[in-house]
Structure formats: structure tokens, C-alpha cells
From TrEMBL:
The lineage of its organism: Eukaryota, Viridiplantae, Chlorophyta, core chlorophytes, Chlorophyceae. This is Tbc2 translation factor, chloroplastic. Residues 1-43, 123-222, 258-306 are annotated as: Disordered. One of its GO terms (cellular component) is ribonucleoprotein granule. Residues 262-284 have a biased composition (Acidic residues). Residues 123-141, 199-212 have a biased composition (Low complexity). One of its GO terms (molecular function) is RNA binding. GO terms for biological process: chloroplast rRNA processing; mitochondrial RNA processing; regulation of mitochondrial mRNA stability. It comes from Monoraphidium neglectum. Residues 150-160 have a biased composition (Basic and acidic residues).
């Protein structure tokens, strides 16, 4: 239940329609830019509400203002309240994300430090044991002991050789660069392996104290949330109810027919014209497109309604202006709800999208980009006439847009699966090429990802300019940027040779930070490297395997299948313990596998030298039996090949179902697929 109103009662009176301030709208990818709308000196109550909105520290305070004055608040004030709530929630999410990454980093450092401490302790204990043995035994006993060691009775010689090999291997490996904790300069805080060795040489008889990595205290984690603990008594439903009330009040200012579709509207919207890449539905950051509907639009002219008013874009623009809903207000409302990650309903978003499209010609560049980005983030595909109006304005403003705005526009088109025309793409590549040098890492990665999602390869000169602009910034790239860029290079099938140096530099830069990557980012990165046939160095492969094991409980079934397939495709040789752990982790995920996941996982495990148990084999065939109807010829061939490599004989029921599903479509099999299947069966 929402909190009751607690602010002092102010005398209610009708607010005069304010004028929207001339500030720039917030950029699509950040919450900075447009300030609060200017209420004007003619309305003291409006100025007071504007100040209360600007000083609010949580959405709960905004809810109190809405409870008292929501019915009389003008659209600019409603959009200002929604924007303030979105920014506060975004700051809270950013704080939680930073706290989680800090916790991951601290745990990773503590784990590494603990491993080095254990290795140093084991080496020191072995050295002391050898010294004690040499001091205690006379020469005769030592010789007898050496003879016993040669005969293999006690195995001391083998143990000493193993310890010496471990010592040489540990000393040959460079120490990790560990930062001092608590903001101290390097060397002032923390405990590294070098200082531990010096301490052990000075005090050889003292045992070092080991501490298991502990998560930060609860109070410290809450302190990192930037005051978010004050909202713990309110649920997400309360916050969504507040946003829903804002949407209802804002839409009430527009005509009731704003979100309706004209009868003469013909659905001639652009189509994506491309298929989803195999295994990349979750890792490509395609956005939530579940909100696309085919029955809400407004643009176009409709005959007069019962009241005599024409339902055209011009009529809607005039009605929005009369209600105080200027171009910036519609875009600000869309941006606020997109940042909040909440879709209030198609009757609200459709009305705001219609108003934004009707007023696009009178809007500035940032407002148009803001509206397009917000619609893509909300997963709301406008009607073809609306989309053409918005993208037409975007194309006209391409030369004046910055790199971030350009990347957001192409990202929006890819997210909504609306492939722009060839003329738009030519203008886009020409306008964005000179601005790549000053672009941020997220903008560079998003442009390349959108090109891959749209199957729109850029010119070779543009690709070279992109590589030159992104190379100096690789140390600042995040996990999502790295994964999206590598996936796009593999999807666009760029030749590896021009990007070989760029990929090598990228891997050497991001390898120490792989423990901060999510499971989806690790899977997407490994898939792209395997598709590009980019080899991994020994230290890079070790960092990847360790990062995967740190995320083993949170990895999804498809992500496990992609990782295993990528390692097998690259010819990697993970340790047997890692492969056994991967088999154990895929056991509960088998029931979530798809056709390609079943085929890739079985083939990859066979190539990696795994030995799944009989129970794993039984669950694999039982879970894949119901999916055989959806198998393609290459899936059948790959699964049969994997079973043959593992020397498995599939159950009779499973083989009968395979024969039944493939009997009528053998003519569509490729010769290589048919040969692989027959070879596996033979």
C-alpha cells in the first residue's frame, strides 16, 4: 500500500499552464541533461512543487507530492517527477552494482592471496622438514633412507622432487598486481606474497595466519547503497503503483484517441530481414521487445470522429500543445519510464509515442533521439507512420548528432528489429566515421553490435577507423562492451587478419578483469573468439577457466553449451578437474537445454575428453527425447557424432524417434551432415 500523504496541506487552485524550459533533454544513455521544467513566476504553487520535486531524496517523497497535488499538476511537472524518480532509482541501482563488483574484486583478491599463502606455507614447511631430517639423521641413516627412497618404500624422493618443481613453477610465474585496500598507496596496505616471504625469512618458526575470504559486513554493504536501506519497507509494487499514477495523470491531458490506430493505416513497417544468430538470444543484449503490439498507433489521417475533430498528427500536436504537453515533455516521460524499466501500458506509451512523432519536426535533436531510444528500451514498436516520422527526423539530423546519439539510434533500430533503408545506412556510416575518434567505449561497442544485429556490414574504411579509435581505450572497456564487440565481429564475418592485432591487444587487456564478467558475457566472448578462430594464450585460457568456475552456479544452460562448444572448437585442453566440474554443473541444466544446446554440449564434451556418468547419460537422452521434433539436420548429425565419440549407444526409443523425425526430410540434409550421421551410426 502506498504511504499516506504527509506534507502540509497547501491551498489547491488551478495551475496555469507552464511553459517548458529550453534546456537540453537528458541523453538517451545517461540521466544527465535536461533540467526541471520552468514553471514561471505567475504560479507560486508551481514553483513550490518544482522545488519539492527537485529536493526529493526518494520516490516516496514524490508520491506524497503526487497524492496531494497530482490532479492539478501540469504535464511538465509530472514529467519532472517521473524523471527525478528514474534518476534516483538509477543511482540506487548503480550503487548496488558498484558494491557487487567491489565485493567480487575483494573476494577474488582474497582467494588469490590465500592460494599464495598456502603455497608459501607448504614450501616453508617442506624446507624445515628437510633441515630437521638432515640434522637428526647420521650419515648411515641418511644413506639407508636414500636407499629406501630409491626402492620406493616411503616416497620421500618423489615428494621432494614434486615440491621442488612446484617451487620453480611458482617462482617462474609473475606475482599478480594486487592493489592495496582501503585507498592506501601500493605497499602501504594489504598483504602480498613478497612481503610474506620476507616475514617468513625473518621469523622462520612462526606459522602465518590464514583467513578465509569473508564478504564485507552487512552494515558496510548497506552503507554502499547510498541510502537505499530507507526504502526496504516498500516493495517494487509500491514503486510501480507510483509510476502508474504518474502515467495516468500525464495521459489524461491528451485526447482519448491519441493511442488508437487509424482505419486507413496499412502495416507497411520495415522488417528486420535477418535471423537471430544461433545461441545468441540472451548474450547479444537485444533488449526487451516483448512490448511490440500491432494495434496501437496514431499517425495518419482518420475521418472525423463523432465530435467532429480529425484524428490526424497535426490535430494531436495542437491538442498536446494546448494541454501543455510540449515536445520535450513527451520525450521526458518516455525516457523516465525507460530508465525505470517499467512499461505502464500500451495506452500510455502509445499516446506519448504518438505525441512525440507528431511533434518531431518541432523538437530538437536530443529530444528526438531521446524518444527513439526510450521506445526501444521499453520494447514498444510504433506504427509504421510513426516510425517513419521519427527515423526521418533522425536521418535529417545525422550530421549534427554526436557519437553517443548516433550509436543510440542504430541500437534502437536493431533492438526493435527494424532494419533501416540502404540510404539511411549510407548516410549513417558517412556521418559517424569522423566522430569515432572521440566516442566513448559504450558508443563504439553499441554501434558495432547494432550493425551485427541488423546484418548491415559497414564499409571497410569505416571498420578501420573504428579499430583505430577503439584501440587506445581498450583498458576502459567493460565486460558487456567487450562481449558485444567480439560477437559483432564474428557475426559480420570480418576477416580476422586485419583485426588480429586488435583482438590480441583486447585479450591481453581484459584477461586480468575476466572475474568481473557475467556468465552471459563470458559465453558470448568465448563464442566470438571461437568463431573468429582467435587462439588464446595459456594465461588467457587459465583466466577464462577460473572466471567460469567463479560463475558456475549462475551460468544458464545455453551459456554452458556455448562455453563448452567454444573451448572444443578452439582445441583447448582444460584440466580434467575443470571438465568434471563442468559436467557436474550441466546436470541440473539439461532440462533447460534447447536443440542446439544438446548437440553442442555432447559434441564438445566428447572433444574435451569428458567422461559423463551413466546417470548423466540417462538424463541427457531423457531430456532431449522431447526436443527431437525441433532438431535440425545439423543438430542430429552433431548429437550422433558426440555419442559415437563417447562410445555411447543411445537407447532404442531415442534412436527410433530420431529415425521417425528425419525420415521425411532426408532430402534437405547436406552431404556432410548425412555422412557424419551415417559414420556415427556405423
Amino acid at each position: 500500500m502506498l504511504p499516506p500523504a504527509g506534507l502540509p496541506q497547501l491551498q489547491r487552485r488551478a495551475l496555469q499552464r507552464p511553459t517548458f524550459g529550453g534546456g537540453a533533454a537528458p541523453d538517451a544513455s545517461s540521466g544527465h541533461g535536461r533540467g526541471l521544467p520552468s514553471q514561471g513566476a505567475s504560479s507560486p504553487l508551481g514553483l513550490l512543487l518544482q522545488k519539492q520535486i527537485a529536493d526529493a531524496e526518494s520516490w516516496v517523497e514524490l508520491q506524497l507530492v503526487l497524492n496531494q497535488h497530482g490532479a492539478s499538476m501540469a504535464p511538465p511537472l509530472l514529467s519532472a517527477a517521473a524523471m527525478r524518480a528514474a534518476r534516483l532509482q538509477q543511482a540506487l541501482r548503480d550503487g548496488r552494482r558498484r558494491a557487487q563488483q567491489a565485493e567480487w574484486t575483494e573476494t577474488h583478491k582474497a582467494t588469490i592471496q590465500h592460494a599464495w599463502d598456502r603455497a608459501d606455507e607448504f614450501a616453508a614447511a617442506a624446507q624445515r622438514r628437510r633441515q630437521q631430517q638432515q640434522q637428526r639423521w647420521p650419515e648411515q641413516e641418511q644413506q639407508q633412507e636414500q636407499e629406501q627412497q630409491e626402492e620406493g618404500r616411503d616416497g620421500w624422493r618423489l615428494q621432494d622432487e614434486w615440491e621442488e618443481q612446484e617451487e620453480r613453477r611458482r617462482r617462474a610465474r609473475p606475482l599478480p598486481q594486487l592493489e592495496a585496500r582501503g585507498g592506501d598507496p601500493p605497499g602501504a596496505g594489504g598483504r602480498d606474497a613478497a612481503s610474506l616471504r620476507v616475514q617468513q625469512q625473518q621469523q622462520p618458526h612462526q606459522q602465518p595466519q590464514h583467513q578465509q575470504p569473508q564478504p564485507p559486513p552487512l552494515q558496510q554493504r548497506r552503507r554502499r547503497l547510498q541510502g537505499g536501506e530507507m526504502l526496504t519497507k516498500y516493495s517494487d509494487d509500491d514503486y510501480h503503483a507510483f509510476l502508474q499514477e504518474v502515467a495516468r495523470l500525464a495521459t489524461a491531458q491528451l485526447p482519448p484517441w491519441a493511442a488508437e490506430r487509424p482505419e486507413e493505416e496499412e502495416d507497411e513497417g520495415g522488417q528486420c530481414g535477418c535471423e537471430e544468430p544461433e545461441g545468441e538470444e540472451e548474450e547479444g543484449e537485444r533488449g526487451n521487445v516483448t512490448g511490440r503490439r500491432g494495434d496501437q498507433s496514431l499517425a495518419g489521417v482518420r475521418p472525423a470522429d463523432e465530435g467532429g475533430a480529425t484524428r490526424s498528427a497535426a490535430a494531436l500536436a495542437a491538442a498536446a500543445a494546448a494541454a501543455g504537453l510540449e515536445p520535450g515533455v513527451s520525450a521526458a516521460l518516455l525516457w523516465s519510464f525507460a530508465k525505470a524499466g517499467y512499461h505502464p501500458g500500451y495506452e500510455h506509451v502509445g499516446a506519448w509515442a504518438a505525441a512525440a512523432a507528431a511533434q518531431a519536426a518541432d523538437s530538437d535533436d536530443i529530444t528526438v533521439c531521446q524518444a527513439v531510444w526510450a521506445l526501444a528500451s521499453l520494447g514498444h514498436l510504433p506504427w509504421p507512420s510513426q516510425w517513419r516520422a521519427l527515423m526521418g527526423e533522425v536521418r535529417r539530423r545525422l550530421p549534427s548528432l554526436e557519437a553517443r546519439g548516433l550509436s543510440n539510434m542504430l541500437w534502437a533500430a536493431a533492438t526493435l528489429e527494424q532494419r533501416p533503408s540502404d540510404g539511411f545506412l549510407r548516410d549513417f556510416w558517412a556521418a559517424s566515421a569522423p566522430k569515432l575518434a572521440g566516442a566513448q567505449p559504450q558508443a563504439l561497442a553499441n554501434i558495432l553490435w547494432a550493425a551485427g544485429a541488423l546484418r548491415a556490414p559497414p564499409p571497410r574504411s569505416w571498420a578501420q577507423a573504428w579499430a583505430q579509435a577503439s584501440a587506445p581505450q581498450l583498458s576502459r572497456w567493460g565486460g558487456r562492451d567487450v562481449a558485444n564487440a567480439v560477437w559483432a565481429l564474428a557475426t559480420l564475418r570480418f576477416p580476422r587478419r586485419p583485426f588480429a592485432v586488435w583482438l590480441s591487444r583486447l585479450l591481453s587487456t581484459c584477461a586480468p578483469r575476466l572475474h568481473l564478467f557475467s556468465g552471459a558475457e563470458l559465453a558470448q566472448l568465448s563464442w566470438g573468439l571461437a568463431a573468429l578462430r582467435q587462439p588464446l594464450a595459456e594465461r588467457q585460457l587459465e583466466a577464462l577457466l577460473n572466471a567460469v568456475m567463479e560463475r558456475k552456479t549462475s551460468l544458464k544452460g545455453r551459456e554452458w553449451a556455448m562455453l563448452l562448444w567454444s573451448l572444443a572448437r578452439q582445441g583447448a585442453a582444460p584440466p580434467p578437474r575443470w571438465v568434471a566440474a563442468a559436467v557436474a554443473c550441466t546436470w541440473p541444466k539439461l532440462r533447460f537445454f534447447g536443440p542446439q544446446d544438446f548437440a553442442n554440449a555432447l559434441w564438445a564434451l566428447a572433444r574435451l575428453g569428458a567422461a559423463p556418468s551413466v546417470a548423466w547419460r540417462g538424463r541427457y537422452f531423457a531430456s532431449s527425447l522431447s526436443q527431437l521434433f525441433f532438431f535440425e539436420p545439423r543438430h542430429h548429425a552433431q548429437a550422433l557424432t558426440g555419442a559415437a565419440l563417447l562410445r555411447w549407444r543411445p537407447p532404442a526409443e531415442w534412436l527410433d524417434r530420431v529415425f521417425l523425425e528425419t525420415y521425411g526430410g532426408l532430402m534437405s540434409w547436406r552431404p556432410a551432415e548425412l555422412a557424419a550421421a551415417l559414420n556415427a551410426l556405423g
